[in-house]
Amino acid sequence: MGGTEWDRVVPYNVDVSAALTMARVLTFREGDYYWVHDGRWGFPERPRPGSIHELWADPVVRETGTHSVLDIWDVCGPDEESRIASAAPLTRETAHRLFGTDRPTRDDYQRAKGSLWGVVEDRGHGYYVVLYRDGVPDEISFFEVMGD
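^ thats the sequence. predicted structure below, dont judge the formating
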């Protein structure tokens, strides 16, 4: 399938794990992911799985992922190494390099979005960044670059 990148923005929650859960639920509900049906990648004419559990029961999905936030299972703390299938916070230095601040707004994020993919060091690892409005946390964006 080649390289893909995705992102998902949700309302801010001090509990980043809860924000991730919300992102996963919304993504599944909206069908914004790749899936397999009868051994073939799903397209709109193929039925979607009825649950996240059913989605992940398919061995092809387990091997290749969904190319969405559904591939992220937990979050890393600020002092933890990033790991596959987890989302780590962008470092302050990376945020400052991308956005010119360590407290980016949604507009900063949208302007820099194309550059995000250039700073991600570990393919298959998710990241998140808190987005601010009027100096107050407002949203969290989860994102990942997969493949090539």
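The chain has five helices and seven strands.
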